[in-house]
Specification:
Distance between the termini: 69 Å
CATH architecture of the largest domain: 3-Layer(bba) Sandwich
CATH topology of the largest domain: FAD/NAD(P)-binding domain
Strand order of the largest sheet: 3-2-1-7-19
CATH superfamily of the largest domain: FAD/NAD(P)-binding domain
Largest sheet: 5 strands, parallel
Structural class: alpha/beta
Strand content: 25-35%
């Protein structure tokens, strides 16, 4: 039998679509099969908790490409086609219908799934999770009929859905086991700013609480019972307690798994013909000198472009500084860098935190590990440069709005400072 010359991509989200696009852009003219478990063509996820959920963006805006794009670029897009197995030795992917697709190179962009709430009542009607387009539709619909919702989890998804609910005029209670929102991600100094933001917009924040049960009435969720015996009444319960990488397919195929699919800086797995990108990939980052798994849009947008080029034999590595953003009420934020929980020794602020127009920088040994800009724009590149440089900075100059960020990299500014 002749060797297979085609490429297969498992996972028809943003990462899968961008990989297919890059393969064609780089001149690959062989077969490309893009397998999607959902019946929706590839779409982006940020609008599901932001513009689309808020009703600001039309549904068509969430899709990566128009419907005709796939045929025009000879991409065999197969929707509703779940992959159920990989045979690395035979270079084949098995589908749910029993059919097989051969590959020369395989890219896994299988993403992640929401963690399920492990308490009684978690499967009741009216308990909602946000991952797919249909989930966003259900949550948006709940805002039209609910007068009050409970949000379990004060991470990015929890806070963004809380903001969307408040914008729709719904009363919101946020329940969080930690003592502040986003505490592991941002640390105490900046987490408090997000707590104040939601309090100022009328959200009832309950920290240090444990959920015991989702209560019901008439077969639907009616609220949340906490371990201390208190009850939160709600017409809908939204759960956002994190996600787990969809690495089961890779694990069953014998690939190395470590908090996702472990890949090198070229996004290649322990099998030289299988690559991974996006949420599911725990990739070695050359600048950081360690493996990291990033669960954000920019990774799903950019990482598969490197994977596609590597699949074509190009000498590339993925070394972009991690980036994510959020929009909540009148606050817009961008974050560049990577900090392990507790992995910094100080936070330096530039600007006015009380007016929510500022930058924050996480430092270790005077080196900038990450930077965040809140309602301050066009500074992502200099923040990224500070992080990538690895050079020590003077914290007092970093905090001084009159010192251009570029001046902190050893280049004097126009005043000679």
């Amino acid at each position: 039998m002749a060797a297979n010359t085609g490429f297969v991509i498992v996972g028809a989200g943003l990462a899968g679509a961008k990989a297919a696009q890059t393969l064609r852009k780089e001149g690959f003219d062989g077969p490309i099969v893009l397998l999607g478990e959902e019946n929706q063509r590839p779409y982006e996820r940020p609008p599901l908790s932001k513009g689309y959920l808020l009703g600001k963006d039309e549904r068509d805006k969430v899709y990566v490409h128009p419907p005709q794009w796939y045929a025009e670029h000879d991409i065999d897009l197969r929707l509703g086609s779940a992959a159920t197995g990989i045979d690395p030795a035979g270079h084949e992917v098995t589908l749910a219908d029993g059919s097989r697709v051969g590959y020369a190179k395989l890219l896994l962009t299988t993403g992640s799934s929401p963690r399920r709430l492990p308490v009684p009542g978690a499967d009741l009607d009216g308990v909602l999770y946000l991952r797919r387009l249909a989930d966003s539709d259900r949550i948006k619909e709940s805002f039209t009929s609910a007068s009050r919702v409970a949000v379990i989890g004060a991470g990015w998804i929890g806070l963004e859905t809380a903001a969307a609910a408040r914008a729709a005029g719904v009363e919101v209670t946020v329940l969080q086991a930690a003592e502040l929102p986003l505490l592991r991600v941002l640390g105490r100094e900046v987490a408090q700013i997000f707590a104040d933001l939601h309090t100022d917009h009328g959200v009832d924040l309950r920290f240090g609480v444990q959920v015991a049960e989702i209560t019901s009435a008439g077969g639907r969720a009616s609220g949340v019972l906490l371990n201390d015996g208190s009850r939160i009444e709600a017409d809908a319960v939204i759960v956002g307690i994190g996600i787990t990488p969809n690495s089961g397919l890779a694990e069953a195929a014998g690939l190395e798994i470590d908090n996702g699919i472990r890949v090198d800086a070229q996004l290649r797995s322990s099998d030289p013909d299988i690559y991974a990108a996006g949420d599911v990939a725990n990739a070695f980052h050359p600048l950081l000198g360690k493996h990291i798994r990033v669960e954000h849009w920019a990774n799903a947008l950019n990482q598969p472009q490197t994977a596609a080029k590597a699949m074509l034999g190009q000498d590339v590595t993925y070394d972009r500084i991690p980036y994510f953003f959020t929009d909540q009420y009148d606050l817009g934020m961008e974050y560049s860098g990577y900090v392990e929980p507790g992995g910094y020794d100080r936070v330096v602020f530039r600007g006015r935190t009380e007016s929510r127009e500022f930058m924050a920088f996480w430092l270790a040994d005077s080196r900038v590990l990450a930077g965040m800009n809140v309602n301050v724009w066009d500074v992502t590149e200099p923040i990224r440069d500070l992080v990538a440089s690895g050079h020590p900075v003077d914290p007092s100059r970093l905090a001084d709005p009159d010192v251009p960020l570029s001046g902190l990299l050893g280049q004097p500014d126009s005043t000679g400072r």
